[in-house]
Design brief:
Number of helices: 22
Structural class: alpha/beta
Strand content: 5-15%
CATH class of the largest domain: Alpha Beta
Largest sheet: 8 strands, mixed
CATH architecture of the largest domain: 3-Layer(aba) Sandwich
Distance between the termini: 69 Å
Radius of gyration: 27 Å
Strand order of the largest sheet: 9-8-7-10-11-12-13-14
Length: 491
């Protein structure tokens, strides 16, 4: 044992454990300042992330460590798997875990191990400044987050480590479910491969009994047909219904009350303004004696489970399932798509999302409007902003197709940067450089050639400065520039 060495706590979901985790264990045990390593699997994710059962993740982690030759370290106490986070109620928070460990093991000098990506989101951590004031952090590099580590490297609590490979448990889970790059499976230890395949198989939700009986989809539009196609590809029994007849629809006309009462799940996939009316009709049509009836979901992006209140009043479990993807009736588009789920029937919605190859994300109750606004800001308004760029180029005499062709690669590059890094690090251009002279030239140019977009530029300039954390004096200079429409004009 190393004299006065640290007890390095390496926390994470380990969902599933992979070879990069094993590399990290070896690296930590080889550090001169580390005496022992405790692996701390998360019990209850602070952001509500759904994880495989704790016991199964811990068992896979132990099997991987044994197969990697770390059995002796487990035996002599240099390495341990801690279940401390199962002992506390509520979400797993690093500050709370370290506080408990420090109180319980007064003879240990603890530190915490994180990836540099966590530095980029330290503002979301519970009491991050208190953590760094009491305990050192070993920070491992992560591709795309080099700037975050560079900015904190000189601080007393920061003990930098090597950069980890670009692999994640999410990519491995997606590959196991058939919706991600199969190359990610190369990072899965052989000792846990079969257990992981069973745990993350695409039909696990259905096999575990989350989906009982046939699935009825009410609405034969693009979303309804895409879900029907995706669920059928997963081997599930699906009935597609619409009020209006169509050549390929077996079920249409009045709601089929009897068969619907025997459904395992009912999905309402109609326009937002029709959902509540159809929910009332469905509540009237279902057998009033059926208390343990089907779970009922809708597919609207803006509305939550509250839109199905008449069905909830009947004792049915309700919720929503919204694929964050443009659908055209083909289930293949659902593979790999994020799917927002919420409501009392969120477990069923998650099972359906996994069955079609999607990636479920659970939302808090009552927050669907904020989720939908996020999608509109990021996607729909990008089209509007693109139109503004085209308008400026057209004002200079360029043809509209040429203007679009010039700007599209910029948009594509921005999307790639944003996929790899937090927004503040992905940003390029004058705001990233703090180049206020260029901003001062933009304002009168937009005022001359596309004045309808000037207020949009001003609002986004201020929002960008806030995102970047500009100091007050620079933001005041920016405001002074933004209210000038012509060089030299009075504010």
């Amino acid at each position: 044992m190393k004299a006065d060495g640290l007890t390095a706590c390496y926390g994470g979901a380990f969902d599933p454990p992979h070879l990069a985790h094993l590399f990290t264990v070896g690296y930590l045990l080889g550090r001169g300042d580390v005496e022992r390593v405790w692996l701390v699997p998360t019990a209850d994710h602070v952001f509500g992330k759904r994880m495989a059962p704790f016991a199964e993740r811990a068992a896979m982690l132990r099997a991987a460590l044994d197969a990697a030759g770390w059995g002796p370290a487990l035996a002599d106490g240099r390495l341990a798997i801690s279940d401390v986070e199962t002992e506390r109620g509520g979400p797993s928070r690093t500050f709370d875990t370290l506080t408990l460990l420090t109180a319980r093991h007064s003879g240990h000098a603890f530190c915490w191990v994180i990836g540099a990506d966590n530095l980029s989101e330290s503002h979301r951590w519970h009491r991050f400044d208190d953590i760094t004031a009491r305990w050192p952090l070993i920070v491992l590099g992560r591709p795309g987050h080099e700037a975050a580590l560079t900015a904190r490297r000189g601080e007393a609590w920061c003990r930098p480590g090597p950069t980890l490979p670009a692999v994640s448990s999410t990519a491995i889970r997606d590959a196991l479910r058939g919706v991600g790059d199969p190359e990610a499976l190369r990072w899965l230890p052989d000792a846990t491969r079969e257990a992981a395949r069973r745990l993350y198989r695409p039909d696990r939700g259905a096999a575990d009994g989350a989906l009982r009986g046939p699935i009825w989809i009410l609405g034969a539009g693009r979303a309804g047909r895409a879900l029907a196609d995706g669920l059928r590809r997963a081997g599930l029994t699906v009935r597609l219904w619409s009020r209006s007849p169509a050549p390929d629809l077996e079920h249409h006309g009045p709601l089929p009350a009897g068969p619907l009462s025997e459904a395992g799940v009912i999905i309402i996939a109609v326009r937002d303004d029709v959902i509540e009316r159809l929910a009332r009709d469905l509540a009237d049509a279902l057998d009033p004696q059926t208390l343990d009836g089907p779970a009922v979901l809708h597919t609207a992006g803006r509305l939550g489970a509250e839109a199905l209140a008449p069905l909830a009043a009947r004792g049915l479990r309700t919720g929503s399932l919204h694929p964050l993807q443009s659908l055209r009736g083909d289930g293949a588009a659902l593979r790999g798509a994020f799917c927002a789920v919420e409501g009392p029937a969120a477990d069923t919605a998650e099972a359906l999302a996994r069955a079609v190859g999607g990636r479920p994300v659970r939302l808090p109750a009552g927050e669907k409007a904020a989720y939908h606004a996020a999608a509109v800001l990021a996607a729909n308004f990008a089209t509007t902003l693109g139109a503004g760029g085209v308008a400026l180029l057209e004002a200079l005499g360029l043809a509209e197709p040429t203007a679009r062709a010039m700007l599209t690669p910029l948009l594509e590059g921005t999307v790639k940067h944003l996929a790899a890094s937090p927004a503040a690090e992905a940003l390029t251009g004058p705001f990233a450089r703090g180049d206020l002279e260029t901003v001062a030239a933009h304002v009168p140019a937009i005022a001359r050639h596309a004045p309808q977009y000037l207020d949009t530029y001003r609002a986004l300039a201020r929002a960008t400065a806030a995102m970047l954390g500009w100091p007050d004096d620079r933001r005041r200079r920016l405001d002074a520039i933004l209210i000038h429409e012509e060089p030299g004009a009075d504010p």
